[in-house]
Design a protein that fits this description.
10 helices; Aspartate Aminotransferase, domain 2; binds pyridoxal-5'-phosphate; 6-stranded mixed sheet; about 15% strand
């Protein structure tokens, strides 16, 4: 709303390469009437192809170059692309929904310092807070701030959900204090989970690159009945993850991939050692075809040992307690 008008052009990451649905024709971008063009993608390294993306940006001359993914294994090569942004004079927008907490912890990339105009993000993915959105920019233009504000309200939202603003403030304060350690352990866990699954015969993407530099890993489970079936089977074992399109997929209903993030288990105190236990539980369902109900008992047992919060002011506080109130509620 702030950066582009209907019929303007925007370059984005394709859905099947990990782009978010709001960046696509059927999402907010299309509703706004903005025309999208997808960057060429190098599936071997699960990242934007730098030379191809430069060519695309020079050719299309977009109003906005948008980056950021929902399947986000490695940082976007912003430094390598920078020269074409100024060459064609486009605005740049980094959708850091998934990786906001890793950026805050200094463990992914630093898009604003890399010259990006606007960073948007979710406060409930790797930033472990209540559901909100965030827009950050250091562009000095006042007119830009006005159009951003107008885009948000009355453009796309109205109420700002005041009930969870205090919780968000706590999350941000905790992120300043513990964000680095949390991001660090999250990424370590993701790598360890990738290694554990790889050792148990699963096709975890980007083995040669250490599987990931983020909280996410992606597994091609085509040989094990595909992502849709496996996500359902794993859910029966109390392991919640989602089916996901991979770059070589064509059917969004029955994709080859499953995607998982390590941030929640890290928050509950699990480390590399537990990641290999988690990998074993997943492999028992996916590779060995064990009855998910049987595996579920072991999943529950493992999880019962991890019910406390970490990387927060009240280290070790129960994660699942409901506040109790003894007073008179009349
Ligand atoms: C999740 C996601 C969104 C949507 O964010 P919500 O705050 O959950 O609505 C936008 N962009 C990307 C890249 C995402 O992964």
């Amino acid at each position: 709303m702030a950066l582009a008008k209907p019929r303007d052009k925007m370059t984005t990451v394709a859905l099947s390469d990990g782009g978010h649905i709001s960046h696509a024709k059927i999402g907010a971008t299309g509703v706004r009437g903005v025309r999208t063009y997808n960057y060429p993608f190098d599936e071997k390294v699960m990242n934007i192809d730098v030379q191809g993306a430069k060519r695309l940006i020079r050719e299309v001359k977009p109003k906005v170059a948008l980056f950021g993914q929902s399947v986000y294994l490695f940082p976007t090569p912003l430094d390598e692309l920078k020269e074409v942004f100024s060459e064609v004079g486009c605005s740049t927008w980094y959708d850091g929904a998934h990786v906001l907490g890793l950026i805050a912890g200094g463990r992914f990339q630093d898009p604003l310092r890399q010259g990006i105009d606007v960073v948007s993000g979710s406060t409930h993915k790797t930033l472990p807070g209540p559901q909100h959105g965030m827009i950050i920019s250091d562009l000095p233009r006042e007119s830009f701030e006005t159009s951003l504000r107008r885009g948000v309200f009355p453009g796309v939202t109205s109420n700002h959900h005041l009930h969870s603003v205090a919780a968000l403030a706590v999350t941000l304060a905790e992120t300043k204090e513990f964000g680095e350690a949390y991001a660090d352990q999250t990424i370590r866990n993701a790598k360890a989970l990738g290694q554990g699954l790889h050792e148990r015969g699963l096709d975890v993407l980007c083995e040669r690159l250490g599987f990931t530099e983020s909280h996410t890993i992606v597994v091609d489970v085509e040989e094990f009945h595909g992502g849709a079936k496996m996500a359902k089977e794993l859910e029966r074992a109390n392991i919640i993850l989602n089916k996901n399109l991979l770059p070589w997929d064509s059917d969004p209903i029955r994709p080859c991939g499953i995607r998982m993030g390590a941030q929640e288990l890290a928050r509950l105190g699990m480390k590399e050692k537990e990641m290999s236990e988690v990998a074993e539980l997943i492999a028992r369902v996916v590779v060995k075809g064990e009855d998910p109900e049987k595996v579920k008992a072991d999943v529950v047992e493992l999880k019962h040992q991890f019910t406390k919060l970490h990387y927060c002011f009240f280290e070790g506080e129960e994660a699942y307690d409901y506040p109790s109130y003894d007073g008179d509620l009349r």
